[in-house]
Structure formats: C-alpha cells, structure tokens
C-alpha cells in the first residue's frame, strides 16, 4: 500500500487547497487598503475545507521557504457564518496570540498547539471561548502560554529598562470545558499546579504529561473509570506512581518511557512492576517502557525458550511477565532497552534497535514529540542503509522526510536525516522510487541547505543531490537550487569537499538546459562566482577538480548565450585564461575546457573585436599545434580563429601575426587531424558551424566547418545526421559545392 500511496497523484482537494493558498488574492480574497486580506463576500466554506486550508497553510509556512506568510491570514476565519473551523493543528512560531483571538468565535472540536512558543496567557483566555465544544486539546511545548506580561508602571526610566515582567498565571483551570476528553500538556512549564488545573474535568479519556515531574499523581484516580491513555514520558517514577497506575484499570495505552540520556533516574523497572501492569491493566494493547533499565532479569532462560520461528504468542514470550497477557500487544516500546533483542516478543509492533523493522517503528512513534529519541533512531537507520540493504525503503524514506520536515530547526535530526537520505536515494534503490517521492526528497534537502549553514548538513545535502539525474530531476526547483549552490560557493570560508561537490553540481545544472535557464543563472552571478573560484585556485597555484569544473561550467553556461559570454569578458575572464595557460601548461583537460568556452565567445559577432589583439591571436595560433586531449584543443583553437577570419580582412586590426600566416597554420592543423577521431564534445545545435558555410570571405573557415560536420556525422551518425537535416544543413552543403571560391578538398568532403 505504501508503494501505491507514494505513486498516486495528489487529490483534487489537496491541489486546490495548495493553489488557493499560494494565490489567495486571485481566488478567495481581495486586498483591503493594499494590506489586509479579506474574504470575498459571496464565499461560504464548510469546515472540511477550512480545516484543510488552515492546516496546509501552517505546513507551507513551515516547510516551503518560498511561501510568504500573511499577517492577516487567520482573520479570514473570524466569522463562522462564512467559514467554519472544527479541527486545526497549529505549530511553532507561525501562530501568535492575535491569530487564536481572530478565530475565537469558531466552535472548535480539536485544537493542537505544538511548540507554539509565542503564545502567552492571552491565549489561555481565548481557549475559554472554545470551552463548550472542545473535545481534544494539545498544548505540547507551549512553554509561555501560562505567562502573562505584567507592566510594573510607575517610573518612566524603570519602564525602559524592564518594560515587562513575565508572571506565571496561577488561577487558570479547565473549568467549563465540559466536553474535553483528550488533553496533552507535554513539556508544561514548572510551577503550574497540574492537579488544580485538571480537577474540573469530569471524564478524561487521554492525558499526556510528557516531560513533567509530578511526585504525587494520586489525583489521576479521579478518572480511573474513563482514562484509556496515559503518557508519562520522562517522569521519574516511584512506587507511589506505580500503585496509582495499577488502579487505572481502563488503560489501553500506557507510556512510561524515558530518554535515558536526559538526566539521572532513580527508578528502575522490575519483574514485579511489569507483573502488576499485566495483572491489573487487563485492557492494555499498547505499552512503552523504552529507555528503562531493568533492575533484575525478566527474561526466560534461553534453555527454556521455545526455539524455532519467532512467535508473538504470550505463552512463548521471552519476557517472563508478559506470559500473563491474554493476547499479544498491538505495540510495545522497547527502544534502548536490552529486551528488544530477545527472540519472542508478544507484540505486533515493537520499537527497538535490533533490526530495521524495530528502528522504523521507533522513528514512526517518536518523530512528532520526541526529536531527541528520533535522531538516535534515524542514526541507526543510517547504519542499516549504509551497511546492509533496507528492505522497507519507501517507508524508511517517508519517515525520514517527515522527520526532516517536522524538525526543520533541530540540528541533530538535520544531520542524521540528511545523511540517511544520501544512502536511501542512491542508485541501487532508484527503481523503487516514484517521481513524487524523489521530489519530496529534493524539497527537504533544499530546506536543510537553506536553514543550516552547518558544514555536515551542507555536505550531506549536496551529496544527496548527486544521487539525482541532473538537470532533469532538479528542473522543478531550478532557480532555488542554483541560488543555494552559488550561496555556498560565495562563502568566504569554505570546506574543500563541499566546494568540490557544489561546483560539480553547478556544472551539471547548466549542462544541456535551455538558454533561458542559462540566462537566468547568469543573472544570479554564476559567471562571477566561477571566475572568483578560478582566481582563488590560481593564487594557490593549484589546478584541481574545482578549477577544471569551474572552467567546464563556464563553457556550458556560455553555450549560445551571448549575455553570459559578455559577462565572462567584462569580469576579466581573458586575463584569467592567459594566466591559467601560463601556470598550467601541461593540463590538457583544463586547456580543452578553456578553449571550448572561448569558442562560445567567438561565436558572438559583437564580442569578437575584443579577441582581436596580437597577444590573443598568437596564443590561439600556437594552440593549433597542441596535441592536448587528442584533437580537442587544436580543434577549438581553430574554431575560435575560424569565426574571427569570417569577419574578413578588414576586421584584422593587428600587424602581427599576419592574417595569411595564421590561415596557413589553420590549414596545416586541420590536415593533421584524423577524420575518424572520437570526440569529447557535445553539440546541441549546428547553427554556429553552419553559419560558416555560405560565404567566400574565408575558405579556411568553410573548411573547418565542413570538417567538423563530416567528423561528427560519420563517427556519431545516429545522433548528428538527424540534427544536420533538421537544421537545414543539406541545402547549405549543396550550394557550397557549386561555389567557385570553395577549395576542392572542402567540396570533396561536403559531397
């Protein structure tokens, strides 16, 4: 089913929601006084649509850097007569007091506020407006919601120094929340009296007190007939806690797990405690004891273990106390405990660190509220993906993507998640991934690069991008990915390995793409960035991959793109060309890349006069004799000169070397090349070559062009014959054969 889920297109509802949110003004809203969004008066939307709009909006603000949040977004839902809200999930900095205030007239049934640190006690008052309808409420991680600002007043100066003091609200309770059944107070601030807060609630079904330390929990027994789910993650327990829990006989889900790294715990689990749970909590279907140390051995001696297939039957359980279960548990949390490695565990789903299944269960169970645990689970997944093969690839990828989206600002998750993605997207897993899934990977990778200037994250993200077909798979984020890479390359302090990967990616991104893409990237400062890298390498006298890739990238980005060629000349590209030639006379790849680029510059008529200096012409003439990289350097030098010759004798504005002398050397060079040479070059169009055929001003240019076409169509007929025909080369060749000025050998070749 996962395979299908990841492949199926988005629902129409999702597509419409996304479109409306990105174009609020053009669809649901108009702008009042050029700043405030207002709903069109004839729009009426039910809660099914409004809930989705709000929840997707929060998601977009959080995970899509290009999406702009709107100051007045929540005011669109202020009037229940035109918009209805029922179930909304808000998170982090996105939501402020005035946003909740704006929707206070709505009859909310479910309100999840997760890590909304900007909410203050003003929002507690707003919650009261929902008290008559609210069934589910989460205030997880809303660490300031019980604080109000108290203005000391009085002295003016004092007000400037200390304008507001944060004061803890002591008198708020859930009085009047008559329908509230599900409540999450995870990571509640210290000093709030939980017992007083909760006492008015008549029948709680689920309560989450994660990360809160309560020494007395007797008050929980007031809901012993209704409580089906209790979470006490990271609470240091005692015998008193255990006795209270054992009285909550209706419990179906109990979580007493902990993060064993977070602090010192006195409490140790024993066989007796587990027995007590099994005997008293007869409805239990889910139990989490992750992170606990077992004080004594709860395991069945391996002699008595029934060997053979692993079994989830309680009677065969390797954990002794669980032999008393009536049926296997749906879920058993054993992450970072020794028990998860046992043979027979009586549960359908186990979180642990023994194998891929257990690790994925852990990531799934803990991602939303426990990033500290999740990052360690993802680290285990990273090892599995790196050393052995992942058998549940799609599930693994989706879980890592969700974790990275959910915890965009958590450094540990970004580091481990981006590393895991690199191994999960490499070529051996390629076939199993849909376009949609691979796009999601690219999105979270780019998010990571945006939010984190941290070296490890940047390197992991760049490496992961290398697993994709470039430019095709990155086309849908083309501008953004180029901006991010140029940003990395423009940083003053640079990590060598990241620099190398980023230049490689930049080069691949401008290879074989449309000219408008190249122009856009040129305007972003691509040419300048590459020249700066070359300058730096020259200063260090190193010709490494970064140097070669940078010239190669310039060769690609100037291809049939005059604006970029002009930029190359304006930013003293020619000076760098001469210096590199002088500094690295033996580097053949480098010479090929540099001359390929100059070939592109020479194709632009307006720029050719800038190449017309004694120094440049001498350099190009001398390179005609070069044997570097087969014929490539000589061929490209001859190409540059062919375009210059095409401008005629009157454009030859130099005394030395003489035009005739250079022409003679060009003929000699072309005659020395092997017509069957295999080539290190890739033409997308023959237009610049075909231009040199119908003219009598420079027979040698005509000959170079004919030689180039003859070589390419005879060595690579499948690729280049169709191109020659498509671009109208045949009639041009036929006409040239009739020309009196063309040399006999050129005509032979053309024929």
UniProtKB/TrEMBL annotation:
InterPro entries: ARM-like, ARM-type_fold, Armadillo, LRR_dom_sf, LRR_Zer-1, ZER1-like_C, Zyg-11_UBL_adapter
Zer-1-like leucine-rich repeats region domain boundaries: 196-337
Domain Protein zer-1 homolog-like C-terminal: 404-750
Entry keywords, A to Z: Acetylation, Leucine-rich repeat, Repeat, Ubl conjugation pathway
Taxonomic superkingdom: Eukaryota
SMART domains, per database record: ARM (SM00185)
GO (cellular component) term, any one: Cul2-RING ubiquitin ligase complex
Signal peptide: none
Subunit and partners: Interacts with the ELOC-ELOB/Elongin BC complex. Part of an E3 ubiquitin ligase complex including ZER1, CUL2 and Elongin BC.
Family the entry assigns: Belongs to the zyg-11 family.
PANTHER family with a match to the protein in the record: PROTEIN ZER-1 HOMOLOG (PTHR12904:SF23), PTHR12904
Protein known as: Protein zer-1 homolog
């Amino acid at each position: 089913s996962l395979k299908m889920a990841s492949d199926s297109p988005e629902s129409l509802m999702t597509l419409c929601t996304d479109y409306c949110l990105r174009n609020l003004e053009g669809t649901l809203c108009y702008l009042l006084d050029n700043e405030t969004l207002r709903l069109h008066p004839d729009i009426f939307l039910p809660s099914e649509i409004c809930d989705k709009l709000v929840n997707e909006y929060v998601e977009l603000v959080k995970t899509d850097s290009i999406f702009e949040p709107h100051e007045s977004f929540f005011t669109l839902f202020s009037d229940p007569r035109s918009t209805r809200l029922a179930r909304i999930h808000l998170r982090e900095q996105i939501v402020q007091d005035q946003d909740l205030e704006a929707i206070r007239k709505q009859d909310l049934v479910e309100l999840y506020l997760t890590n909304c640190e900007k909410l203050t006690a003003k929002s507690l008052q707003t919650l009261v407006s929902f008290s008559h309808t609210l069934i589910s409420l989460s205030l997880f991680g809303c660490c300031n919601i019980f604080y109000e600002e108290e203005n000391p007043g009085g002295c003016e100066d004092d007000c400037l120094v200390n304008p507001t003091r944060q004061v803890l609200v002591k008198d708020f309770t859930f009085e009047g929340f008559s329908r509230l059944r599900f409540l999450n107070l995870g990571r509640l601030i210290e000093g709030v009296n939980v017992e007083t807060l909760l006492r008015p609630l008549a029948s709680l079904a689920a309560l989450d007190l994660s990360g809160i330390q309560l020494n007395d929990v007797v008050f929980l027994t007031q809901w012993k007939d209704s409580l089906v789910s209790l979470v006490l993650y990271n609470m240091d327990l005692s015998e008193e806690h255990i006795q209270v829990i054992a009285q909550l006989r209706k419990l179906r889900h109990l979580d007493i797990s902990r993060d064993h790294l977070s602090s010192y715990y006195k409490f140790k689990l024993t066989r007796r405690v587990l027995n007590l749970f099994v005997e008293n909590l007869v409805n239990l279907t889910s139990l989490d004891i992750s992170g606990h140390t077992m004080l004594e051995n709860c395991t069945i001696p391996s002699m008595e273990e029934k060997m053979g297939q692993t079994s989830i039957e309680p009677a065969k359980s390797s954990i002794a106390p669980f032999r008393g279960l009536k049926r296997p548990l749906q879920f058993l949390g054993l992450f970072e405990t020794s028990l998860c490695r046992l043979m027979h565990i009586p549960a359908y789903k186990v979180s642990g660190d023994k194998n891929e299944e257990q690790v994925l269960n852990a990531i799934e169970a803990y991602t939303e509220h426990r990033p500290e645990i999740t990052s360690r689970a993802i680290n285990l997944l990273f090892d599995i993906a790196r050393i052995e093969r992942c058998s549940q690839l799609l599930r693994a990828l989706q879980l890592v993507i969700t974790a990275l989206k959910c915890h965009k600002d958590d450094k540990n998750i970004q580091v481990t998640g981006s590393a895991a993605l690199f191994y999960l997207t490499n070529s051996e897993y390629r076939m199993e991934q849909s376009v949609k899934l691979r796009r999601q990977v690219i999105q979270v990778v780019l998010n990571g690069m945006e939010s984190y200037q941290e070296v490890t994250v940047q390197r992991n993200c760049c490496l992961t991008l290398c697993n994709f077909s470039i430019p095709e798979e990155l086309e849908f984020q083309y501008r953004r990915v180029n901006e991010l890479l140029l940003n990395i390359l423009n940083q003053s302090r640079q990590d060598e390995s990241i620099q190398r990967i980023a230049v490689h990616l930049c080069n691949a991104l401008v290879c074989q793409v449309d000219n408008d893409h190249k122009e856009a990237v040129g305007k972003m400062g691509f040419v300048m960035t590459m020249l700066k890298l070359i300058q730096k390498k020259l200063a260090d006298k190193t010709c490494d991959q970064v140097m070669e890739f940078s010239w190669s990238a310039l060769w690609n980005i100037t291809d049939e793109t005059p604006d970029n060629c002009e930029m190359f000349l304006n930013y003293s590209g020619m000076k760098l060309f001469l210096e590199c030639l002088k500094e690295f006379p033996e580097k053949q790849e480098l010479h090929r890349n540099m001359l390929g680029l100059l070939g592109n510059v020479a194709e632009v008529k307006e720029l050719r006069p800038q190449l017309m200096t004694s120094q440049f012409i001498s350099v190009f003439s001398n390179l005609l004799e070069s044997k570097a990289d087969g014929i490539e350097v000589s061929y490209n030098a001859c190409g540059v000169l062919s375009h210059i010759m095409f401008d005629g004798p009157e454009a030859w504005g130099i005394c030395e070397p003489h035009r005739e002398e250079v022409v003679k050397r060009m003929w000699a060079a072309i005659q020395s090349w092997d017509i069957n040479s295999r080539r290190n070059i890739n033409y997308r169009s023959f237009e610049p070559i075909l231009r040199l055929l119908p003219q009598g001003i420079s027979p040698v240019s005509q000959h170079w062009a004919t030689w180039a076409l003859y070589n390419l169509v005879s060595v690579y007929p499948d690729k280049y014959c169709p191109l020659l025909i498509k671009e109208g080369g045949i009639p041009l060749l036929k006409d040239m054969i009739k020309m009196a000025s063309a040399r006999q050998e050129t005509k032979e070749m053309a024929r």
